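Local shape tokens:
==================
===
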Amino acid sequence: MFQDGHEANMHLIADVGAPGSIQDEMPDLPEVVQHVFLVRKRGTESVKLASRCPGGLCRGRLYPESKGAENSLIASGVSLSPLSRRKASRQSGSAWLRAPSNYRLPELSSIDASRQFIHLNCQSVFALKDSFAMDPASLALGIAGLLPLLAKAIRCAKEYSDAVRTAKDAISALISELEALQFSVDNLQQFLKCNALADDNVTFRHTSVLLSCFKACDAKLRSLCHKLSQEDGGIRSRCLWPFSDKEHQKTLQELRNFAAWMHLALTVDGCRLLSQTSDDVLKLLGQQLEHFKAIQSLEETVTQISSTVKEQQRLLGDSLADDARKQLLDWISTTRYYQKHQALQESRTRNAGHWILQSADLIRWKDGSGETDKVLFSIIIDSLLSSAQTPRQAVAYFYFDHQDQYSQLPATVLSSILRQLLEQHRAIPEAVARVYKSAGSKGGLPQFECASLITEVTKGLGRVYLVLDALDECAPEHRASLLQTLSQLSRVPGLRLLVTSRPHIREITNAFTHLIRLEIVAQDEDIRLYIRQELTKNGIHDMCDADFAKELIQKLAQGADGMFLLPVLQLRTILKEPTVGEMEDSLNNLSNNLTEAFEETIGRIQSFAASRARLGMETLMILTHAARTLNVDELRDILSVHPNHRRINVKYRPTEKMILECCQGLVTVDARTGDVRTCHYSVKEYLLGNSHRLFPGAESAMATKCLRYFMLQDFSTGPWEEGEDIRSRTQDHPFLPYAARFWGRHVKLSGDNHEVQTALDEFFALTRATATANQVRQYSMGYREEYWAHEECLSFTPLHLAAREGLTQTIEGLLRAGRFGVNQRTGQGSTPIIHAAANGHVDIVRMLMQRGADPYLSNWYGNALHCAIEGDRPSTVRELVVRWGMDWKGTDGYGGDYLDSILPSAAGNLILEERGIPTPGPGEVLIRNHAIAVNPIDWKRQAFGIAVRAYPSILGSDIAGTVEAVGPDVDSFQPGDRVLGSGDAMSTGNIDHAAFQTYTIVSASILAKLPDNIDYKQAATLPTALGTAAIALHDVLGLPEPGTEPSSPTPGILVWGGASSVGTATIQLARLAGLKVFAAASPQHHAYVRSLGAVAAVDYRSPSAVDDLVAAAKKESVEVRYAETVPLVVGVLGRFGGEKKIAVTVPWPEQVAKPEGIEATWIRGDRIWNARKDLAERVFNGLLGQWLETGEVVPGKARVVEGGLGGLQAALDELKKGVSGEKLVVEL
């Protein structure tokens, strides 16, 4: 099947029963047979002795198929490289076909002719040439290839039935349909073998209906087996039912359809009919229906067959389309968003929480946006899902989890939402398909791209409900960025955003001030329902009378004070008491707040017998400091390892019940997934906040646990040869994958702890321990076999591992000791600097380069720069290129566009040329541009030569990107900083300071740091706009700057063109300065300018614009505006007394007389970069980064023009024609 990457159509295998001679010459075979293999059985193994292929005879090994149908073999073809073996091992669904009579096998004395057969992968069966036709007996053997797949699918489904705690009915239904299909396939196989068709000379070509049916069935079964086996998902995945309700029902229907096709072929007529092509069958049926339409029964039969064939055609097409669609959806996201929701559905207290659906605010939000405990959230989702049944509505949701912050990055969240919306979209939108195609199905979607595509998908739907639970549990370092995106999405027409969060997280409440807010407090009746349910579950009525139970319910409900968690913890405290009297004592001495309740619970745990107290506190420590959520098997495994143990003893593994008992209600186990977590985010916050007291040296303890785990004798035989051996070890030792992946993280966080360093030295001294850890890490992360191969993992040195994990202090020690070469290579050719560069560790790259590391040494993928690019590590790319001068050419795309968009002559179009990277001088910074915005002055300079001192020239000013290098005397910025700023080439005449190029030099005094919550294209809209606004307000008009004492009375400002880039910047800057802002803008922008801070907005095109503004403004007004509306502005200001000023962004028009009593001034935005650098430094260096991070300043709307630097001319042409309410940006 595989010969140097070329697909062969068929393999012929001769099964050799006993060792014998091998002939070097093989007979001529039909063209369709591309490879011939001679095979000898050796027990359960099969060894390839020789093969013939178009390139001649070769010898080698036949690899047993580890992931395919049982008892099948697959060969790697001529090439025996690891890549070929990897490809071969991924094939599945083998079929065995009898050799047609015209095939002559090698006449070797050792070959048993009765066991001669052709081996066809099922995919090859359906790729045969048109000239090749199979008789029924051969097809029967081909169909037999479905039986191992069915057996495997049934076995996997039954394994799920044992492992999954829920979805029993769904699993049972799937098994029933698979067994029914298995019965039909077996019957059809027997029918085809019985010679019933011998007299009819029926043959089957690859285009026949029946073979098409088998192909669709085979594809579905292989897909089903892969999903059920979850071979790349780890242990945890196998405890999770992998189907949503919709997927499950669709699968059942498809299996029923396949069984119906098999049943249809169980007659001579039916089989003869289905040997035709789909088009022939439909044509024949039409003729028969026309000829025999008087015979009702035949008409019904023919109609039924016709419908079946059409359905088969449709499903075959759907199957191919579904496969492509699924690949695209899986590329976007593989997050199982529905599992948390299913678990919450099953954990609800009956009838509790439904009051939320009657909330007036929720009804307002649903019909028209809003902000609202996880159970209530799941009830809302169910309500939305049940009501959103039309094609024009969609629901997407996401549950944040404090135990899983490691994997809930903004891009992960948004890609999950995008997938959900696409699943409810009939067709994949063109914008999504275009992005997928351009990405080549590699990598994932960045955050900004996800948001953009969500907006596009929403446009294709009538209404989208986007619901996010516990946003406060999103990692703080990612929250600001996600809030920025969500705030933008909340303004998309047709999108309804619902967010739940605790109210004291200010950045969340500030981000959604424009949304309806619904305060959720624990309802008295919900608390009472829950307590009654728990009392019944714990058999309280067998211990005490109804009066005590009533008193207990009353007292806990009354003391809840709007918190559900408090009575839950109180109830658990009471129910732990052994007698009624002690329960009463506990009831009468309850804590009044959560902190006291937590303290009492911790005290109770610590008062247990020593072993139980250790178990409880160690569990809490592990759950609080783990890098990801642990399931109960992983937790039990690591808790069983004691410091004096030399190997794992399962007798020391605590039961799930004992763990929960020792944690006294602070920990829960998810019934569906088996995940262990603290019962509420506030518990984890309390534990983290008191970690130094409760768990001193927690990270050191975690690091030591991981390192010593690999030094146990259980792993002394590792690394292992086969993936099955690794899988077996991880099943027996569930903590193994976690320790392998995160030992480095915990070592890094433990600092210079002596115990950790001792354990690390011991770990590095054991080659098999480090190789085992490395192999399990690579395997469990789904890497290719080359990465976890036995020899490759043994070839790693401690220097490789420390470089990969970012252990700077350890690297220093290893380099001083000199035991390992700085350029030592693994079996695949990887060097320590390749690992450091690929994982973004700039300080280690620098350290290794200083010690003589060669960054040009390559592994199979490429050198250090290639690997840094592939790993998306811009910081190490910059380090290698800028500081160490690595040649970027030939890096498969990176750096190939170190270009400038050159203006060759007056009024000429921009052209692309290469030029050298400039060097920053004193006080200057070199920026690698990621986004460039165009301004009206840019096309005017191009058309009229304004401020162009010589040609060729470079235009542009507004940029956002990263710092590549800094000049002398610059200490406020360093390489890697995200920044925005404006080049001042128009003032200085130095084209190195222009924006339309890959690199731009900017003065450090007029540069601002860019927080992570703002993307580059948004940031690029700000510099000129904000600089112009600052000059107008604080220089020309003399108004107070933000942070200074405002004048009295408060000045008013009229911003004409409030939705423009300068207008939006002016509104926000004026608001921050304490001014009252009135805006004139088109009606579609009124809500937008008000959200920025305008107290009123009017339509400047309305005949009553002057009267409307006068009516709105109660005090003096000044204005920043464009010249063409000067008469209207004069009309407004003329109606007021006091000092009146106008600042305009172009010279005063000659045809307009300057009004008496009104001071009019032309402002130049570039003035802030030269004459008023003091103002620029205060605004950009001092305040802008903070304003952007807190959301006090929001960048203007950006629209990307495709083409990078090559798209700048198109952007200028469009801007010249007129652009409203947005700024055009190109991305590099």
